[in-house]
Amino acid sequence: MAATYYEKIVLPMGKKEFREYSEILFSCHSCGIEGSSFSVDDTRCLFEEQLGYHPVGKSLLECQEMADHFATYEWMHNHLDHPFDVGLLKTINRLVTLRTLTYKQADAVLGEFTTVDMAAGDTVFGEHEGLVAQVPRLMASTAEMMERGELHPMVLSARFHGFFEYLHPFRDGNGRTGRLLSNFILLRHNCPELIIQKEDRQEYITALRTIRTEGTDEHLVAFFFKAATKQMEFSLEQKMHNSRKMFFF
């Protein structure tokens, strides 16, 4: 299906148009998973007008968070040759929380690891010192696997994501940072980006939770493949539907 997707969707759109299409969808859904109420149309308007656009009923915080996500996405795409290391990780997190971190966590430092234990929803993470200490090894082992090419890129992307969210090393932006870096892995392997839709948030969170409750990431790997297939099928079906011959009058 990936080959058909490239042939029917990516190539005819052209690099610039497809990148903007992906940036808007990915940003909308990735921020939406974290609670943003932006629709795809809201996201497109903000993308086109930047912070000159303030949709009715949306907070300035939401607008700034989305604008930061755009900037991080574009930085990442322009630096796909960057080593997959702690420096990359900290840069992505710093950029994605640039205008919102001090509002949410006044004592936090942009792009730096947490200095307190973390919790999210009903999950209490482990002792932060031990978790943060494992981050360099995660980045190095993932980089090594990227070079060796023994795992399917989607499997590697999912496994990295599961391990990273388990470590949860930053005060804020762990989800957005993890999803961006999962796509960094896919893009380095010339694979389509993964867009996890906010409507699938509960299934996604459940798949992440099984890493802790069952000690396996097989559910997350399966979810990544399912989400990728869903996105490609939707785009292909939409293009076929909108290519029908119209009869005027």
Automatic annotation (TrEMBL):
Gene3D superfamilies, A to Z: Fido-like domain
Fido domain location: 84-226
PANTHER family tied to this protein: FIDO DOMAIN-CONTAINING PROTEIN, FIDO DOMAIN-CONTAINING PROTEIN DDB_G0283145
Name used for this protein in its record: Fic family protein
